[in-house]
Amino acid sequence: MSLPSSTSSHFDRSIVEGPIGPAVWKLAWPTMLQNVIGGMQGIVDHVMVGHYVGYVGNAAIGVSWQIFLVVIVFIASLYTGTAVLVARFAGRNEPEKTNRTVYQAFLVSVVLSIGVLAPLGYFLAPGLLSFVNATPEVEAQALPYLRIMFVFSIGMLMFFMLGGALRSAGDARTPLRLGVLLTVMNIFFNVILIKGLGPIPAFGTKGAAMGTVLASGIVGVIGIGLLFSGTLVVRFSRAMSWRPDWSIVRSLFRFGLPSGFQGVAMNVAGVLLLRFIGSLEHSAEAQAAYAVGYTELFSLIAWTSSGLLGATAAVAGQNLGAGRPDRTVQAVRAASRIGLIAAAGLGLVFMLVPRVLLGFFGMEDPTVLRLGSHLLRLLAISGLFVTVALTYTGGLQGTGDTRSPLYISIVSQIVVPLGLCFVLQATSGLTAWHIWVAIVLGHFTRCTLSVLRFRQEKWRSIVVDIEPARS
Q1: CA distance 307 to 36
Q2: Is 173 within a domain?
Q3: Which pTM was predicted?
Q4: Does 6 have pLDDT greater than 60?
Q5: What are the distances in angstroms from CA 388 to CA 133, 340, 402?
Q6: Is the Cα dihedral 257, 409, 343, 380 positive or negative?
Q7: Left if phi > 0, otherwise alpha if psi is -120 to 50, otherwise beta: which for 170?
Q8: 293-331 pLDDT, tens per residue?
Q9: Angle subtended at Cα 296 by Cα 287 and Cα 53, rounded to the nearest 5 degrees
Q10: Sign of the alpha-carbon dihedral angle for 412, 343, 38, 355
């Protein structure tokens, strides 16, 4: 049963009291739609760069994003911790603790973005590109893109922080509105900056990064303003202290760091996979096929499933906080059914018209089309595994079990696919087909282990709380 609060609450209690299916869908559809729209932003980047720069530009963006995600996912790990705490406090109807938690996440984000990510990312970018075996042509396009993304990452971090916190508190529509605004502005800036307009020169691949950081910076400022306006379910006050509350910060990282290491493990695996791709005979063509097929087109499934992960985590965490663990189980099952329907529909398109999809990105090289078509057909199957894995991961993370997904990711995203690639490279010889199959086997392993771990139900006993506010 929900605990009383001395502060007036604006939380949506239907998440812990109403029918479970509609409760999941209420949070899932705005988050899924937001992620699909956000994925379109990257697709527009690749389409424009593919037409105005060529497939080398596509490869540069794909390689840069894979590297950027390794770092940004770890920095953003505290948002998983934020989501765990916010969902529990919202489920217990404790708005004061909710607001304090999100405010501390905001302060930590500012410090990490400006003090850590910007300087380290700028100076380490050349070495990171060399590590993934980027060709000189790809590296020349990727370096300025990557440095811009690292140095001006604060807007993106603010957007991630706000979206995760509001969804965990039961508001998925405000992040959707902000996500639509971000995508529209990003497309607007990219149309101008990638190909040039009037006195503004064509920046090419660099222009895609400039458009992204400009749009995310503006949306980040708007989002923080809304938190101080008092109109959202989460609210900031000018009376809040700039000093860190170490009890909250420790809790953020206690639950967030395992997810950060999980994200790093998965994206390091992606970087190492790019290294294997870079060792192939047609490396630039394979990297371009991977960048468009996996990083962009498959993101329509991955981001939809990630939206379900966020919605599942919120509903699961709130119901566990409200003392209703059986509803947590029901929420995860309902979310997985929604994900399977979406993944099957998108997978059918991948199966039927892969060359049409690749051609939309300006892919005309016969080798790129052949490699990309093989990849998309395999990803049509892999999407079913990914969506189930992510919904059950959401159930684990939302209830506070953020360590199990870390161990599962190490096995499924590193040991299985990279181990297979290493063995084949050392024995019969590695091909692009082998790498594509290794990706599918990794996703299957992740799905199986995630479902089995959640069904053990050890998450029922996890305690989540922070110290009372100082008077």
Answers
A1: 9
A2: yes
A3: 0.79
A4: no
A5: 33, 7, 17
A6: positive
A7: left
A8: 887 788 788 878 888 888 899 999 999 988 899 999 999
A9: 60
A10: positive
Strand, coil or helix: 441: helix
Range of the domain at 81: 18-457
Structure tokens of 404?
């199990």
Per-residue three-class SS string for 297-361: HCHHHHHHHHHHHHHHHHHHHHHHHCCCHHHHHHHHHHHHHHHHHHHHHHHHHHHHCHHHHHHCC
State the angle between helix axes of 299-321 and 78-91 in degrees (0 to 180), rounded to the nearest 10: 40
Residue 471 lies in a domain: no
Q: Is residue 409 a part of any domain in this protein?
A: yes
Place of tokens 């765990």: 84
Per-residue pLDDT of 125-151, as tens digits, reads 888 888 777 778 888 888 988 999 899
Structure tokens at 95: 């708005």
Distance CA 112, CA 75 (A): 7
The neighbouring-strand residues paired with 200 are 197
Which tens digit of pLDDT belongs to each residue from 210-224? 998 999 999 999 999
The residue among 84, 136, 125 whose CA lies nearest residue 318 is 84
Distance from C-alpha of 442 to C-alpha of 416, rounded to nearest angstrom: 6
Number of folded domains in the chain? 1
Residue 269 lies in a domain: yes
CA distances from residue 289 to 34, 185, 285, 351, 376 in whole angstroms, order as listed: 25, 27, 6, 16, 9
Burial class (CB in 10 A: 0-12, 13-18, 19+), 104: buried
Higher pLDDT, 208 or 76: 208
DSSP bridge partners of 197: 200
Q: Which two tokens stand for residue 108?
A: 């930590």
